[in-house]
What we know:
The chain is mainly alpha-helical. The protein has helices at residues 3-25, 44-53, 55-73, 82-98, 103-107, 113-138, 155-184, and strands spanning 28-31, 37-39.
Amino acid sequence: MTKTYNRTRTLVECALMIAVGTVLGKISIFSMPYGGSVTLLSMLPFVLVSFRHGVKWGLMTGFVDALLQMLLGFYAPPAGTVIAFIGVVMLDYVLAFTLLGSADWFARFFRNRAVGVAVGTAAVCVIRFLCSFLSGALLWGSYQEYYEWAKGMSVWLYSFIYNATYMLPELVLTTIAAVLLYKAAPKFFTAE
Length: 192
C-alpha cells in the first residue's frame, strides 16, 4: 500500500469517527439542566482513533470534534468578558475534546493491552472531567444559586458534584465499552 492510500484511509476513518461521535453525543441518557449529559458512548470513537492510529491522529480528530461541538451548541459564559469566553472555549471545548485523543499515550505504560485500554480510556475521561470541573468552578459557579442542594457550599465542591454527576457514569460506561470492544475485536485497536 502506498503512503497516500494509508493517509487517505486514516483521514476517512477519523472523519467517520467524528460523525459517529457526533451522532452518539446527540443520544442522551441523562442531561444536566445547565449543560453536561451522559451520552451513548460519545467519547469512545475518539479513544478508538487514538488506540488505532496513535496520539497524533487522536489529538487532531479530537480537535476537529471540539470545533464541531462549538458549532453545534456553544454555551456562552455567564460573565461576558473576553477572558471568560476564552476560558469556555479552551476548557469546555478545545482541551476537553482534543485530549480524548491522548488515550494511547496512557496505555503505553502497560504490557497488558486490555489494562492499557482501560487505563488510557479512564485517564482521558478523567482529564475531560477535570476540564469541566475547572470550568464549572472558575466560569460557571454563578449557576450554583439555582440549586437548593448547593446553597452555602463552596463553588469548588459544587462544580465537583455537578460535573461528577454526569462525567462519572460517562467514564464508567466508556471504559467498560472500550475494554469489551477490545476483548471482542482486538484487531480494531491497531491499524492494518
